[in-house]
Task: inverse folding
């Protein structure tokens, strides 16, 4: 800690150092930029969603079962990630580790089903170059998937650091920031679920 | 000692998380049902499912991410965080609705389509359609 600060005993570890506080605030501002990034991809996708050329329509290939599996894996992982931070604030390192590892497992499961779905689409004749609509789809959903992949590596490294150094103001701020990132991935997925999958299926059937 | 950081960290059961999780599941399934299981008009379906999406996003931010949480004993950072996210949401909505409106409403007049959302797909082969197929 840079300064001899006095703290309310209820102040969580991650807020006790100035660096930790500023990093958390800075990360919130980064998330604002991420929202703008995804907004541009959503805009492109939604503009081009009917430009299917000779390829299949988007809603034609979407499947409710695969969609729900992915959605619930990611939603549950967001929940378990929240429980991990809850345990961290009770200074329970084992609880933090356990819930975070479950979170990572659910994240890997999500990626597995997403990749399976992409392969299925490609098999059905819809790849990234098939039409403007499918390009928009793969870039938007793929960017989200790339974020999940990055998140899995990042969380893993932070957990290794916690295992080595224990919970300090520095490591707990890192855990907290990765948890914000992970929840944010689910926030983006809510809009992919709605704007891509639900809208695609409604437009196709209705 | 008021809980100035508004962190429910030292308590026992994480009710906030559990409530957020259950409500998220309910909203997800209800949105799916509205979209695929009802006979509502397209406009109403879109209004409802996007309403649910924003509601669920707010739940994540409030129940899981503690966006209103203050990092110090001042009330400042919670407000900065909330303000930043609200502004980002505003930017996102302008980008998406603005782009869609410009690119579909304008094209509809250009191509003389009455219902661009359902008719466009057969007529447009790609991004450069306006010159090749502009005279439909």
Result:
């Amino acid at each position: 800690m840079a300064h001899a600060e006095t703290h309310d005993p209820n102040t969580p570890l991650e807020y006790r150092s100035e660096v930790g506080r500023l990093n958390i605030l800075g990360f919130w501002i980064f998330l604002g930029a991420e929202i703008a990034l995804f907004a541009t991809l959503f805009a492109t996708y939604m503009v081009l969603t009917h430009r299917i050329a000779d390829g299949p329509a988007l809603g034609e290939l979407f499947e409710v079962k695969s969609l729900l599996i992915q959605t619930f894996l990611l939603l549950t992982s967001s929940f378990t990630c929240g429980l991990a931070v809850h345990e961290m604030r009770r200074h329970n390192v084992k609880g933090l580790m356990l819930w975070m590892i479950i979170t990572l497992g659910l994240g890997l499961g999500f990626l597995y089903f997403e990749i399976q779905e992409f392969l299925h689409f490609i098999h059905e004749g819809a790849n990234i170059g098939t039409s403007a609509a499918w390009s928009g789809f793969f870039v938007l959903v793929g960017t989200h998937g790339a974020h999940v992949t990055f998140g899995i590596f990042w969380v893993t490294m932070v957990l290794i650091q916690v295992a080595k150094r224990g919970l300090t103001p520095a490591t707990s701020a890192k855990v907290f920031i990765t948890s914000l990132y992970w929840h944010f991935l689910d926030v983006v997925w809510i809009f992919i679920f709605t704007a891509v999958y639900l809208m695609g299926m409604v437009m196709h059937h209705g | 000692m008021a809980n100035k950081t508004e962190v429910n960290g030292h308590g026992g059961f994480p009710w906030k998380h559990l409530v957020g999780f259950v409500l998220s599941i309910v909203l997800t399934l209800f949105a799916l049902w509205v979209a695929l299981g009802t006979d509502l008009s397209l406009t109403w379906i879109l209004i409802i499912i996007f309403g649910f999406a924003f509601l669920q996003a707010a739940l994540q931010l409030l129940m899981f991410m503690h966006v209103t949480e203050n990092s110090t004993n001042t009330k400042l950072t919670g407000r900065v965080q909330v303000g930043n996210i609200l502004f980002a949401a505003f930017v996102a909505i302008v980008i998406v609705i603005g782009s869609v409106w410009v690119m579909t409403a304008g094209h509809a007049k250009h191509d003389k389509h009455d219902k661009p959302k359902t008719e466009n797909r057969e007529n447009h082969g790609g991004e450069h359609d306006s010159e090749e197929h502009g005279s439909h």
